[in-house]
Specification:
With about 400 residues, the protein is mostly beta strands. The strands form 7 sheets. Strands 3-2-1-28 form a 4-stranded antiparallel sheet. A 4-stranded antiparallel sheet has the order 4-5-6-7, with no helix packed on it.
């Protein structure tokens, strides 16, 4: 019978062999838990991101993405502080969260922090900041994550360029030129093209539109970021969606109470859809529209049969059927609710609508054009992005409101 010491040595050797084989992949790795489908909601003024379970509509909680706010303010140079105050004054409020995206593995969140003019990455579960990159100029605007999660593209608004950031390190990979005041960055459905939309200098009145600068959609190759084509417009391009064949864009434009259907091959507007004014909106002057936008929120369902359009100054969201572009139904909200963004849920059936001044998100069913849920979030929700989270990330979130 082996001695006690021999048995102990054999056990230790067996443990060592198991460890080595596991490291070298000889044993199957422990399967990661399932990822949960969520809608990430950027609470612009609150400095947090809320996460909504897209199956149950429960607010799972939030993460503070400006834990270093005072540090950032204290570190500003006099010129940076002047720019910071100027951006806040032009905006009418301080937007701390402009846009965000979650990595495909559900562990990391990338955020463009508007007035702080930077982009940051956080490990969601630990809340540890992984990197921070200062964007050029005085405002970081809309952003987009590449389908493979390796690049985070952020509009450097006052620098008239988009910055392509490596998500692994926060290093700048490249930049590409845009129109004046670049806004959205949208990947085409096939991931081959990035469309950057510029809005022009929004602080100037409509009467001085010619001085607002270049209002354009700049199409670049998503692999090389070299320019492919530039589409110019009379007014700024607000939220837009693109069809799978890369032939059609539906876009809201500055001052337009509706949207356009744009032929990307011919480079022209095919149809302009005028949506109804509310009584309040009909009395407004164009220069009183929030950041020049009458309507600000455009989404499309997966089979491209319906659009979800936010009537920002009208306090409604409408479901519009394609190809006829007829209104299938409208959900009305309280006066001054400010529906300010729309996003299609991962389930493909729901449109999430940010009600900025209500600190809520409305969920509207594409099929029935009816509201199916209303969810409290943080202060001034705007950008929404579909995402997935790990169980560890979900468990780490702060209590639901915020």
């Amino acid at each position: 019978m082996p001695s006690r010491s021999l048995r102990r040595g054999t056990a230790l050797l067996a443990a060592a062999v198991l460890a080595v084989t596991a490291i070298n992949g000889a044993l199957p790795a422990r399967a990661a838990g399932p990822l949960r489908d969520v809608m990430a909601v950027g609470n612009g003024q609150g400095g947090t991101v809320s996460f909504i379970d897209t199956a149950t509509y429960a607010n799972l909680g939030s993460i503070n993405v400006v834990p270093d706010l005072q540090e950032r303010l204290d570190a500003m140079t006099p010129v940076e502080r002047i720019g910071y105050e100027a951006v806040n004054a032009a905006q009418g409020y301080r937007k701390l969260v402009d846009d965000m995206a979650v990595s495909p593995d559900g562990k990391t969140i990338y955020v463009s922090r508007g007035a702080l003019s930077d982009a940051v990455a956080f490990d969601i579960a630990s809340k540890r900041m992984l990197w921070r990159r200062k964007t050029e100029g005085f405002k970081a605007d809309h952003a987009s994550l590449s389908p493979d999660g390796t690049r985070f593209i952020v509009s450097a608004t006052t620098a008239s360029k988009a910055e392509v950031i490596k998500t692994a390190t926060g290093e700048l990979e490249t930049t590409f030129a845009t129109g004046t005041y670049p806004h959205a960055n949208d990947y085409s459905p096939d991931g081959r093209i990035v469309y950057n939309s510029s809005i022009g200098i929004t602080s100037l009145p409509k009467a001085l539109n010619v001085l607002k600068g270049s209002k354009a959609v700049t199409a670049v190759d998503a692999a090389t970021f070299r320019p492919l084509r530039t589409y110019t417009f009379e007014y700024g391009i607000r939220p837009a969606v693109f069809t799978r064949d890369n032939k059609t864009m539906y876009a809201q434009l500055s001052y337009l109470n509706g949207f356009v259907e744009y032929d990307l091959t011919a480079g022209r507007i095919k149809r302009t859809v005028q949506m109804p004014f509310s009584d309040k909106a009909a009395r407004m002057k164009p220069d009183d529209y929030p950041q020049n936008s009458a309507h600000h929120g455009m989404a499309m369902n997966p089979d491209e049969s319906r659009l979800c359009v936010a009537g920002t100054i009208d306090d409604y969201v409408s479901i519009v059927s394609r190809p006829g572009l007829t209104t299938a139904g409208t959900v009305h909200y309280p006066t001054d609710a400010l529906p300010y963004w729309t996003q299609t849920s991962p389930n493909g059936h729901d449109c999430f609508v940010s009600l900025a001044e209500e600190d809520q998100v409305s969920v509207v069913d594409y099929r029935t054009a009816r509201e199916v849920a209303r969810i409290d979030v943080g202060r001034f929700p705007q950008r929404e992005r579909a995402a997935k989270l790990t169980a560890e990330a979900v468990a780490s979130l702060a209590p639901a409101r915020g």
